[in-house]
Specification:
There is one protein chain. This protein has 242 residues and is α+β, with helices and mostly antiparallel strands. The chain folds into two domains: 100 residues, no CATH class; 103 residues. A five-stranded antiparallel β-sheet has the order 1-2-3-7-5, with no helix packed on it. The longest helix has 17 residues.
Length: 242
């Protein structure tokens, strides 16, 4: 007797992006942005890695068939990068991104600076994972400033988090008040002798003026070599296509 043919196991949506190793078309709809993208066999996962020059904000697709989650295996783990991103997220800058849909909860948006990644998942095998993204000027500027500071402070102090948060907020506030400032002028004022950011990291360095000045000079030298800031864009779509 011939046995009945075995039934193929039903497809199950991806639970994470660990198996997202099938390259798909990168997302790069605007200058300064490139999100290398990959999916899995079901196309229900979409791993987006920011290999561009500037930060992006990623949100779910218009029909909310996709949810966002951390891509820990694809993200930096060094203390300076981790502390810098935490400061940018904590600064509240997402609430000022007017290009997000009206009434959109900022808790559902993910800031993805250069070198970072995010995982998008669809819970329905009939719906490929899909997201929307935009280039964001404020989080780019914030990340450049606080990452430069974190590189200087993490090895010298135990808890620079409050200072980095203060400097991220200072960057955001100055961008709102003086949108006309050029990049280097913006950074110089954020880190300048009269700024709240400078006062915060000076206090962290035991109020040592020379140490504070050395830190400021080192960070400004680094920031002079960072990519040019570009204005925030409208939203674009990215889809898991095998």
């Amino acid at each position: 007797m011939v046995p009945p043919p075995s039934k193929a196991a039903p497809l199950r949506p991806a639970a994470d992006c660990f198996k997202s190793d099938v390259p798909v078309e990168p997302a790069s709809a605007m200058d300064g942005v490139r999100l290398d993208a990959s999916t899995d066999a079901t196309q229900t996962s979409l791993l987006l890695k920011n290999t561009g020059l500037l930060s992006v904000v990623v949100i779910p697709d218009e029909r909310w068939t996709t949810r966002l989650t951390a891509a820990r295996h694809a993200n930096p783990t060094d203390p300076a990068s981790v502390a810098a991103l935490a400061a940018v997220i904590g600064s509240g800058g997402l609430s000022a991104v007017t290009e997000l849909p009206t009434g959109f909860p900022s808790s559902q948006a993910v800031i993805v600076p250069p070198g970072w990644a995010v995982c998008a998942l669809s819970d329905d095998v009939r719906e490929p994972a899909s997201v929307r993204y935009l280039r964001d000027k404020a989080s780019s500027a914030e990340y450049f400033v606080v990452k430069g500071l974190a590189d200087q402070l993490v090895s010298k102090t135990k808890k620079p988090g409050t200072t980095l948060l203060e400097c991220a907020k200072s960057t955001l506030q100055l961008l709102k008040e003086r949108p006309d400032l050029g990049d280097i002028q913006l950074y110089a004022e954020v880190l300048g002798a009269e700024s709240t950011c400078r006062a915060s990291y000076k206090a962290l360095l035991s109020n040592d003026e020379r140490a504070a000045q050395r830190t400021s000079t080192s960070v400004l030298n680094l920031l002079e070599r960072t990519p040019q800031l570009l204005e925030t864009t409208r939203l674009f779509a990215a889809l898991a296509r095998g």
